[in-house]
Amino acid sequence: MPDPLRMPGTEELLEETLARSIPLAGTPGQAYVERRGIAVRVAEGAGVRYAADFAGRAAVVAGLYDHHGMLASVHGRYLEVGRRQDKMLTIGPGGGTVNVLGGWRSDPLILVEGLFDALSSVELSHSLVNTTRWLTVWTWFGRRGKASERPNIGGTVRN
Length: 159
Description:
The protein is of the alpha+beta class. The chain has one domain: DNA primase DNAg catalytic core, N-terminal domain (Alpha-Beta Complex), CATH 3.90.980. It has helices spanning 14-20, 28-35, 40-45, 115-120, 134-141, and strands spanning 22-23, 49-54, 57-65, 71-78, 88-91, 98-100, 109-112, 128-130, 156-157. Strands 1-2-3-4-5 form a five-stranded antiparallel beta sheet, sandwiched between helices. Strands 6-8-7-9 form a four-stranded mixed beta sheet.
């Protein structure tokens, strides 16, 4: 099932959703990222913010940007997850990445799957790109190819 293009329930646009979020410091979002072993300065440096109401639940959120720097989607990771609840929600047409330490413009470029994988890897001092979804990698790189031609997620990729 594709991600919703707008915020479920309110039909809020991506830009409105991200603008409504606030910096992490002093919020339950700060406690969440620190519990995951991420310094708030690292998370905020990657654009992670806090939304008290992200489709009805508190979440840490991040904009996903295309290769032109335009907002493509907004990804949220819920602070608390109950039985039979999704742990995350992405809204928007897809594509885009969260960039850490310079992101996709760096060489070497390292791709990782999740937002917290990228944030945790800052200690490596390598520029990273979080794809959130495999489809995002293909859309972002504009490639379609055989499985043997796909980049090694978590490894170094040269484009």
